[in-house]
Design goal:
alpha/beta
C-alpha cells in the first residue's frame, strides 16, 4: 500500500556516507544528487573505465552548475572532494547506506548483496534501485533482510523529483524512515510502495509502452503517428516509441517480463517486436537505432531512414472544401465550428432546433470574446469569424456544404440515423465525417448509400486548443476523401494522424487501459489516489495524474470507452475495473457531478 511520506524526525538524516554500486547513467545521476546535498559518496563499478567516466561526468555536471550560477567554485571543489570511485566493493565498508543500481539481473544483484553482507556494518541499509525485480527475493537472500529495501530513482536522477521507497514484508520500519528522510533532504518527493514489479509509476507506464509497441507491430499506425497522437492528444512530453528508445528496448523487455511473471496479464506480456529489436542489438538511442534511427549511438537526434514518411505525405489530390456543416449543439460541435470559421470556412451549425443552434453559436461568441480579452484576437476579427457561422434548426441547411461533420451524442443508433439523413440532404461528392471517439466509423458509413464518402475525423476537446485530429478511414473510404480530410486538417492548423477503424483508434486505445490499471491499483489497496497521481506526474511527466484526468473526462464516458475496448479486443485485462462501475452506478461521474474519485466544490 502506498502512503504519503513526510519527514520521520526533525533531525538531519544519519545517512552521511553513501555508496553507489553501478556507475552507469542512473548511478552517476544519483551520485550527483547526493554530492549536491553534502553527502560523502563512494562510487563503485566493476569496470575501472566506467568508474573513470562517471567521475568525469560528475566533474562536468558540477562545472555546468557553476556556469549556471547554481554552485560557486568553492562549493564545486568541496563537492568533488567528497567523492571517490573504484572497483572494489570493500570500499563500501564505511557506508551508512549502499544504493545498488547494477544491471537488472537477479544473479548480478544477488552476488553484490552477498558480498556486501561481508563488508558493511550490521546497521548499514542496503537499497536496490531495481524497477523490475523482487525486493523481497533480494532481501530474503541477504544475511540482513530487515535492512534491505528498494530505492527507485527516475532518470535523469538530478531532475526527476519522484523516488519510490519500496518495502518488503521483511523490511524494518526504521530503515524505511531513514531513507525517507534522506530522500526529502535530497529535495525529492518519496512515495512508499509495496513490492511488486514496476511499483507504481513503471507499473502503469510499461503496460502503456508495451501496447504502443504492439500497435506499431500490427502496422495499425506509423511510429510517427503513434508518438504524435500521444504527445498532442494527451500532452505527454514524449511519444511511447521514442520513450522506449530512450529507456532502452532491452530494459523495457526485462521490466515487462518481470511484470508478466507476476501478473499474467496479457497487457504485460512483452510485444514480440521488443524481443526482436533487443536480440538484434537495436536497443534504442544507446545503440543508435531502435524504433527510430539516430545520428550516432547515444545521440538524441533522429535521422531519416527507410520508414520515414516522405515530406508532404502521399495522400494525393483531394476535393475542394469551402463550406462546412457541423451537426450538433454541444461543446464539441461549437468548438469544431469555431475552428473551421477561424480558418476562413463558411460554417452551417445545425442542431435539432433553431434555439439549440443559436445557443451553440452564442457559446462560440463567448469563446471568441475571451480570446479578444486575452489579446489573441481583435474585436473586428472575432466579429468576422462569428459572421461566418450560420445557425440552423434543420439538417436540410447542409444541402450545399462540401464537408459535413457530425458531433452529436456518442450513441451508434443516433449517429446512424443522422448519417442516413445526411445521405439524403447533402449534395453528391460531399464528404461526410464523424467525430466518434469509440464507435465503428464503418457502421456510420453503411447507413448511407455512399460509404466511400464517409470518414472519421476525431477532434479532441477543447477543439480550438487541441492540435490533434485522428483521421480514421474505413475499408470503404475513397482515397480522395482521405486526401481531402488531410488537406483540411492542414488548413485548420491541426496535426492529422492516420489510423484504421478499430475501437479507441490510437489515443483512447492506449490511454484508457492505463487509466483502468490505475483504478485497479487503488481497488487492490496497493496505492492511494494521491500517490498514483503524484507518481505519474513526477515520474512520468504526465500533465495530469490518472484520477485527475478520469474526473475531468467523466467516469461514465471513461466506462463506456473501456467497455467498447473490452468488447472489441476480448482481452480480460481490458475489463473495466469494478470500482469504476460502482462509482458510475452511484452517480459519481467526476467534476460534472461534484464527485468522482475525489469530491469537488459545487459551483
Amino acid at each position: 500500500m502506498a502512503t504519503p511520506l513526510s519527514p520521520q524526525s526533525d533531525s538531519p538524516s544519519p545517512l552521511k556516507t553513501i555508496a553507489v554500486v553501478g556507475l552507469g547513467t542512473m548511478g552517476t545521476g544519483i551520485a550527483e544528487v547526493l554530492l549536491k546535498a553534502g553527502r560523502e559518496v563512494i562510487g563503485i563499478d566493476v569496470s575501472e573505465a566506467q568508474a573513470a567516466r562517471s567521475l568525469a561526468a560528475l566533474e562536468a555536471a558540477t562545472a555546468r552548475a557553476v556556469e549556471r550560477g547554481r554552485l560557486t567554485e568553492q562549493e564545486r571543489a568541496d563537492a568533488l572532494s567528497r567523492v571517490r570511485t573504484g572497483t572494489d566493493l570493500a570500499a563500501a565498508a564505511d557506508a551508512d547506506l549502499v544504493i545498488e543500481v547494477a544491471p537488472e539481473s537477479y544473479e548480478v544483484k544477488h552476488r553484490i548483496f552477498r558480498e556486501l553482507d561481508g563488508v558493511v556494518r550490521p546497521e548499514t541499509i542496503l537499497a536496490t534501485g531495481t524497477n523490475a525485480l523482487s525486493v523481497t527475493r533480494l532481501a530474503a537472500d541477504s544475511a540482513r533482510p530487515e535492512r534491505v529495501l528498494g530505492l527507485h530513482f527516475f532518470n535523469p536522477a538530478p531532475a526527476m523529483k519522484l523516488v519510490e521507497v519500496v518495502s518488503s514484508v521483511l523490511t524494518a520500519p526504521d530503515a524505511v524512515a531513514a531513507v525517507t528522510d534522506l530522500a526529502i533532504e535530497l529535495g525529492k518527493e518519496p512515495v512508499a510502495v509495496g513490492d511488486r514489479p514496476g511499483f507504481v509509476a513503471d507499473g502503469l507506464l510499461f503496460g502503456y509502452l508495451n501496447q504502443a509497441a504492439a500497435m506499431y507491430e500490427a502496422r495499425y499506425a506509423s511510429r510517427e503517428d503513434i508518438d504524435a497522437a500521444m504527445r498532442l492528444g494527451c500532452g505527454l512530453p514524449m511519444g511511447p516509441l521514442a520513450l522506449l528508445d530512450l529507456i532502452g528496448i532491452d530494459t523495457a523487455r526485462t521490466v515487462l517480463d518481470a511484470m508478466y511473471a507476476e501478473s499474467r496479464d496479457r497487457l504485460h506480456a512483452p510485444a514480440p517486436i521488443l524481443k526482436q529489436l533487443s536480440e538484434a542489438g537495436l536497443t534504442g538511442r544507446k545503440a543508435g537505432r531502435g524504433f527510430y534511427t539516430y545520428e550516432a549511438p547515444g545521440s538524441a537526434t533522429v535521422v531519416p531512414d527507410p520508414l520515414t514518411p516522405p515530406p508532404g505525405g502521399t495522400a494525393g489530390a483531394g476535393r475542394t472544401v469551402r463550406s462546412v456543416g457541423v451537426a450538433g449543439s454541444g461543446t464539441m460541435a461549437s468548438g469544431i465550428a469555431e475552428v473551421f470559421a477561424k480558418a476562413g470556412h463558411d460554417v452551417v451549425l445545425a442542431a435539432r432546433s433553431a434555439e439549440k443552434a443559436q445557443t451553440a453559436k452564442a457559446r462560440i461568441g463567448k469563446s471568441l470574446a475571451r480570446s479578444v480579452d486575452k489579446g489573441r484576437l481583435t474585436a473586428e476579427a472575432a466579429a468576422g469569424i462569428l459572421d461566418r457561422i450560420t445557425p440552423a434548426g434543420s439538417y436540410d441547411a447542409f444541402a450545399e456544404v462540401d464537408l459535413a461533420v457530425e458531433a452529436v451524442a456518442e450513441d451508434l443508433e443516433v449517429k446512424r440515423q443522422l448519417f442516413a439523413t445526411l445521405d439524403k440532404v447533402c449534395r453528391p461528392g460531399a464528404v461526410l465525417a464523424t467525430t466518434t471517439s469509440s464507435l465503428p466509423v464503418v457502421a456510420c458509413a453503411r447507413a448511407t448509400s455512399r460509404p466511400q464518402d464517409v470518414i472519421g475525423m476525431h477532434f479532441f476537446n477543447p477543439a480550438p486548443a487541441m492540435k490533434l485530429v485522428e483521421v480514421v478511414r474505413t475499408v470503404l473510404t475513397a482515397d480522395d476523401v482521405h486526401a481531402t480530410v488531410r488537406e483540411v486538417c492542414a488548413g485548420l492548423g491541426k496535426h492529422a494522424v492516420d489510423c484504421g477503424d478499430r475501437a479507441g483508434f490510437i489515443v483512447n486505445a492506449l490511454l484508457f487501459p492505463y487509466l483502468n490499471n490505475a483504478i485497479k491499483m487503488v481497488q487492490e489497496h496497493y496505492a492511494s489516489l494521491d500517490d498514483i497521481d503524484a507518481a505519474m506526474k513526477l515520474g512520468g511527466g504526465y500533465p495530469m495524474g490518472p484520477f485527475e484526468l478520469l474526473d475531468v473526462v467523466g467516469l461514465d464516458v471513461s466506462l463506456a470507452i473501456e467497455k467498447v475496448l473490452h468488447r472489441e479486443f476480448r482481452d480480460p485485462g481490458l475489463a473495466p475495473a469494478p470500482l469504476l462501475e460502482h462509482l458510475v452506478a452511484a452517480g459519481c461521474l467526476g467534476r460534472k457531478t461534484g464527485r468522482g474519485f475525489r469530491e469537488y466544490a459545487r459551483r
